[in-house]
Amino acid sequence: MGTFPEGFVWGAATAAYQIEGAAAEDGRTPSIWDTYSHTPGRVLDGDTGDVAADHYHRWREDVATMAELGLGAYRFSLSWSRLLPGGRPNPRGLDFYSRLVDALLERGIAPVATLYHWDLPQEIEDAGGWPVRETAERFAEYAAYAGRVLGDRVHTWTTLNEPWCSAFLGYGSGVHAPGRTDPADALAAAHHLNLAHGLGVRALRAEAPGARCSITLNMHHTRGDAEAVRKVDGVANRIFLDPVLGRGYPEDVRADTAAITGWGFVRDGDEAAIAAPLDVLGVNYYSPTLVKLWDGTGPRASAHGHAGSAASPFPGCEDVDFPPQPGPYTAMGWPVDATGLTEVLVRLHRDYPGVPLMVTENGAAYPDRVDAGGAVHDADRVAYLRDHIEAVGAALAAGADVRGYFAWSLMDNFEWSYGYSKRFGLLHVDYPTGTRTWKDSAHWYRERIAAARRG
């Protein structure tokens, strides 16, 4: 069992739309995920986040569980539609998050707040959404308000969670809200998300000068043919990493996507604005991605269920194939390979030196069941967590500056287009009743945290 440095942060993560429920309570207005999930055919079994895990009403119980787990930090997201519905401050929404943050602090749990985890207010999407520049400006206003009302108590701010998903699944392949399929819009959305991050960091620090600021990226750890790796890495990773970390947009990405867009959405000064200094870079990792150049014959395979077609989430990669990978697999069909996490962290340390890292999501879905004795035996998840935590230890041993690890997820939740069919939680949620049950993985994680603190 690897050792971790003193002060290493152990946490768990969630997202507002996935757990809160109370979709139309206390002033909250619809987000794009409310609209998308209520659109027939978009989400498996017609599931919605209307109730989800009912965290909005059960947050006290959930915070007590976090303390019992021994978490040092809790990563959650704010609902933009709850905090600023229609662009106007909502005292009841603020009260919910204020009480949650205070309860975490009382338990010695550091609040790590994500401003945007995919739930754009519907009225902003109606005005054009992320493909238009004004959305980045609206986000900066939202960040300023959040910093003003919560900045004295939040330990770390994350501007965006996985902007690749927001841009390329939401506006490219259409498998996430708002369900649009225009590669030019997807690329414009990627830029405006980057711009929103930079403007948001500046807005947060203007309101809360001591704010620790971050962004969380879902790293695609690509393996395979060098040219295919370069292309996918460009539009999946470097399109965000390079501008956020002060290098501007990669020229090869611009060239690869020139037939789709002329990049006229990038204005003078944008890249400087995007490169607001970070305190930590959040890294989400679940599995590696195998790629090769497509020979043009036969159907192309898909990457994590996202078809390589005209509605691809990888614009500019039309000649890239995503062949099957060796197992074992999670319930999502994703291959399990912890070595990829070590390689991702070491790569970031090597290619972007001086940037502290934090694993902000890592976990696996399996078909969990509560047995007759009231237990949930999820040995596969225990093995997954054990191996990936050891992979973080290996990255530390190789010199990577990794500051913490957050398991995804604290509890079972609404898993986006998969509805309630996939369970990632340390806690099993019985959706009809909301009852939480500790899985074996929760007991294991509690002991792993305790062992790490004992040294």
In percent, how helical is the residue content? Answer: 25-40%
Distance between the termini: 10 Å
- Provide the gyration radius in Å: 20 Å
Main sheet attributes: strand count, strand direction, barrel closure: 8 strands, parallel, barrel
**What coarse outline follows from CA principal-axis ratios?**
globular
Mean pLDDT metric: 96
Strand order of the largest sheet: 1-2-3-4-5-7-12-13
In CATH's first tier, which class applies?
A: Alpha Beta
User: Can you tell me the CATH architecture?
Assistant: Alpha-Beta Barrel
Q: Strand fraction band?
A: 15-25%
| Total individual domains | 1
CATH topology: TIM Barrel
- The SS-based structural class is alpha/beta
Enzyme class: hydrolase
GO molecular function, one term: beta-galactosidase activity
EC number: 3.2.1.21
Catalytic activity: Hydrolysis of terminal, non-reducing beta-D-glucosyl residues with release of beta-D-glucose
Give an account of the 3D structure:
- The structure is a single chain.
- By secondary structure, the chain is α/β, with parallel strands linked by helices.
- It has one domain: TIM Barrel (Alpha-Beta Barrel).
- 40% of the residues lie in helices and 15% in strands.
- The chain contains 15 helices and 15 strands.
- The strands form 4 sheets. It has an 8-stranded parallel barrel with strand order 1-2-3-4-5-7-12-13, surrounded by 7 helices. A 3-stranded mixed β-sheet has the order 6-8-11. The chain has a two-stranded antiparallel sheet with strand order 9-10.
- Helix 14 (379-397) links the parallel strand 12 and strand 13 (402-408).
- The longest helix is centred in the middle third of the chain and has 25 residues, at 183-207.
- The relative contact order is 0.14.
- Mean pLDDT is 96; it is low at 304-310.
- Keywords: Carbohydrate metabolism, Cellulose degradation, Glycosidase, Hydrolase, Polysaccharide degradation.
